[in-house]
Specification:
Layout lengths: L4 E5 L5 H13 L6 E7 L2 H14 L6 E7 L5 H14 L5 E4 L6 E4 L1 H10 L1 H4 L6 E3 L11 H16 L1 H4 L4 E5 L23 H24 L2 E6 L14 H16 L9 H4 L1 H8 L12 E6 L5 E6 L4 H28 L2
Parallel strand pairs: 1-2, 1-4, 2-3, 4-7, 7-8, 8-9
Antiparallel strand pairs: 5-6, 9-10
Helix pairs in contact: 1-11, 3-6, 6-8, 8-12
């Protein structure tokens, strides 16, 4: 029996987050003591998720579960989660920054029809037909999508860095859609004026990683990997799809895979490959934290593997430094506001 491993998975109640938990259970041997801490927004979902994971992991005697309730749209909630983790644990081995979301308004069906006809593979790899709301502000007066997809991750990791120091791993999760993001705008790091804040937030997350991965490794001994799950079926856009369009989307996924796309892994469990691999199996000497995105990929037969992609440019590093400077200022201002609220 070795030292107990502690894994925190944000947004673990469904889709990719739940699949990360399942794949983690399949990767770490039952002989290793393991605690999985999930975050969910509501107590009912947290309890249901733990019940499902217990059933999935039947027979593991050295396994335990915990949960914390997290609302990424509230800096106060994010700070409270950090405080709870600091009070309950002395170390965290794996921290999966999976939770997030977008503010979608629907699908431009005419544009979707044209994209599918002109390039079936690209239409379900880099879709331009998804519509997003511009200008949504959180209750903390930050860009809402920026807050839940970028700032929350940065704030949380900074707050619990003492638990991760000495070899803990942070797994950030981006998206292949970052490849169609707008050029970074230092005057709008919160993406308030972006017409595609979800897409742009994923590129922003990559810029953040380019600025902190090497620094956090040297200063805190925290290994920060950035991964993406390929393209898989999740619920992030489900509200705008009925059974017929969902079926059509899945058919296009399989067609794209068959004609050569390595990214259409389809099942969330397959998408969880790269995040879990980076947490448990990556070797820093051979698999550097800096300058690479590790992605879940597959061949046309659905055999999955981890693929390296997205080499970082010097412009990315420059923009990342500007971004992190702004993030640090926002963290400081947020902490001051939280202190005032609690006095």
């Amino acid at each position: 029996m070795g030292t107990r491993k502690v894994a925190v998975i944000t947004g673990a109640n469904g889709g990719l987050g739940y699949s990360i938990a399942c794949r983690l259970l399949d990767t770490i041997p039952p002989s290793v003591p393991l605690t999985i801490v999930i975050t969910a927004r509501y107590l009912r979902k947290a309890v249901e998720t733990i019940k499902r994971l217990r059933a999935y992991a039947t027979g593991r005697d050295l396994l335990s579960f915990d949960y914390v309730l997290l609302d990424l749209g509230s800096v106060s909630s994010i700070d409270e989660v950090a405080s709870q983790l600091l009070s309950r644990y002395t170390h965290i081995d794996y921290f999966f920054c999976n939770a997030g979301g977008g503010d979608f308004t629907g699908i431009d069906w005419a544009a979707a029809f044209v994209e599918v006809l002109s390039s079936p593979k690209d239409s379900v790899t880099h879709p331009y037909f998804k519509r997003e709301r511009t200008g949504r502000i959180s209750r903390d007066s930050l860009g809402w999508v920026f807050q839940i997809n970028v700032f929350a991750n940065y704030f949380l990791v900074k707050r619990i860095s003492s638990l991760l120091s000495g070899g803990g791993r942070v797994i950030l999760i981006t998206s292949i859609e970052s490849e169609i993001a707008h050029k970074f705008d230092p005057e709008d790091i919160q993406l308030i004026h972006s017409d595609q804040p979800y897409v742009d937030s994923k590129k922003t997350l990559e810029l953040m990683h380019s600025a902190v991965a090497k620094r956090w490794a040297e200063e805190f001994g925290v290994l920060t990997y950035i991964t993406h799950p390929g393209i898989c079926k999740t619920s992030i856009f489900a509200a705008y799809l009925n059974w017929l369009s969902t079926f059509g989307m899945l058919c296009l996924f399989y067609i794209a895979r068959w004609i050569g796309s390595p990214w259409h892994v389809i099942a969330p469990y397959n998408g969880a490959l790269a995040p879990v691999w980076a947490a448990v199996e990556a070797v820093p000497e051979a698999d550097p934290v800096d300058g690479v995105v590790y992605a879940s990929a597959c061949d046309r037969w659905g055999r999955c593997y981890v693929k390296r992609t997205h080499n970082v440019t010097e412009e990315d590093r420059k923009n990342g430094a500007i971004l992190v400077q702004g993030l640090d200022q926002l963290v400081e201002a947020s902490m001051e506001r939280i202190k005032l609220e609690r006095t």
